[in-house]
Amino acid sequence: MTTTLPRPAAERPRAAGTGTPRLAAARPAGPRTLLTETGAIVGRRLRRMRRAPGRSIGVVLNPLLSLIMLGYLFRDAITLPMGGDYVEYVFAGGAVQVGLACVGPTAVSLALDLQGGLVDRFRSLPISRSAVPLGHTFADWLVGLAGLAVTALTGLALGWRPHTGWLSVAAGFALIAVFIYAMLWLGVLLALTVRSVETISVVAPFIVVVLPFLSSAFLSPQSMPAALRPLAEWNPVTAVIAACRDLWGNPDTAATGFAGAHPLIVVAVTLTALFAVCTTVSLRRFRTAGS
């Protein structure tokens, strides 16, 4: 009786003209199989972040600096047009900044996996094509939620208080959690599009710093130059912030136009469109990544 042993990795069929292993046929993945494979990727990603936490520190550091530098040190120097405590005004901006700060670490991590050949090895295995990006985003989402918890505790220590019922407060934090997850898929798309860690390192600070300052996170759009005011009012970040302030009963700027009067509608449309585009394009590009 003859037993056929699997060929070593060096002898496995390779794509014509390349040194990349041929894409293994992905077995049909049921919900339980996909969950198991995604959980394995999540565990690997969390172990890597525990050994090298540097890139994840920015997820917490950027919002904390905004709350402390602006919300605490300049709380008496900045006057809101409609009155109210500036710490309560700026807290929603710091909370949203957690999601923006997650884009860079996710993009850099996936780009490094692409450059190091790890994605090629995953693609040569008969696993679901969705497991790797899902694992990256779920693991980084846990880090983002931890950063949101630290930001909330810091806000409470600095004087932030919600003035609505606990359901509205929970809904506001749930909205931030959804925003964080949508931003993680933006990071995945950025990595699969650019694939250069150096370029991502240039783009990520722009997302974290510029987008909040071109919104109502720290200043009222009415106080901005006329050319920038429409951009700040229609910025999706402004809509998320306005919705959270309304849910938490915190001071906000005067509602002007459709975007200011209906922030939840703007949030629903923009986040749904962003998530649909990022996930669809990212999963499609991941199937051919490294080929």
UniProtKB/TrEMBL annotation:
Entry keyword set: Antibiotic resistance, Cell membrane, Membrane, Transmembrane, Transmembrane helix, Transport
Segments traversing the membrane: 54-74, 94-118, 138-160, 166-192, 199-219, 261-283
Low complexity: compositionally biased ranges: 15-29
The keyword Transmembrane helix belongs to this UniProt entry's keyword annotation: yes
UniProt-recorded Gene Ontology molecular function terms: ABC-type transporter activity
InterPro entries attached to this UniProt entry: ABC2_TM, ABC2_TM_bact-type, ABC_2_transport, Nod_factor_ABC_transporter
Domain ABC transmembrane type-2: 54-286
Compartments it resides in: Cell membrane; Membrane
Major localization listed first in the record, in broad terms: membrane
Superkingdom field: Bacteria
Segments for region (Disordered): 1-29
Signal peptide: none
UniProt topology in membrane: Multi-pass membrane protein
Matches recorded under PANTHER family: NODULATION PROTEIN J (PTHR43229:SF2)
Name of the protein this chain belongs to: Transport permease protein
Organism, scientific name: Streptomyces subrutilus
